[in-house]
Amino acid sequence: MRWKRTKAFIIDFIILFIVFNILNLVIPKDYNVKDLEARQNELIEKYTNHEILFKEYYKEYSITYYELMDKQKILNISYLLFILIYFILLPFLWKGRTFGCFLNNIQVERFDKGKLMIHQLLIRNIFVIGLLYLIVLNIGIFCIPSTHYFLIVSIVGILQMVLAIFCFNMVFFTKAKRGLQDILSNTEMVKII
User: Fold this and answer.
1) Where do the DSSP E strands lie in the chain?
2) Where do the structural domains in the chain lie, given as residue ranges?
3) Smallest Cα–Cα separation from 33: which of 55, 65, 78, 76?
4) Is the pTM for the entire model greater than 0.90?
5) How many CA atoms lie within 13 A of 167 on its CB side?
6) Interatomic CA distance for residues 108 and 101, integer angstroms
7) Per-residue model confidence as pLDDT tens digits over 103-122
8) CA proximity to 134, closest of 73, 79, 63, 69
9) Please, are residues 157 and 133 in contact by the beta-carbon 8 Å criterion?
10) Which residues contact 72 (CB under 8 A, 6 or more apart)?
């Protein structure tokens, strides 16, 4: 079952990667985005070559990052919407399955065998898919000051990675084969009979 879950996740991740790349091609980039990306690279190079101190690097990089995310709001919201549709709405409507789950004959079910609810799928995906990061990235642009945005988004991104690794380790190395996402959402992955 662990390997079926892993294969399902890999398939879903490939679909996610393809859709995100299509969105990158379809949603036009502002010329300012390219300038901001070049500015980020320039700052990294200056800091690496010891031309600027960390304090200056961090301040300038934070401002540039905020401006870049502000210019890419439509793209980032598109990523968030796709994840919500694919990992929450689709499994809610399709008996707990994504395409990866379908191809591996597994599905998400409530642990108590009741009806699977949207909030359970939301809780599951906060930890593993990067939903927490995307929510903070998208909502933060409207309510977090530019000076703190980069720091908060970075902390949430690191926290998201740590949680995902922790969840995968729980699935692979515990007897119950349930990750934190399964326990907190009161769900489990089961084979389709």
Assistant:
1) 106-110, 187-191
2) 2-191
3) 65
4) no
5) 24
6) 9
7) 999 999 998 988 999 999 99
8) 79
9) yes
10) 33
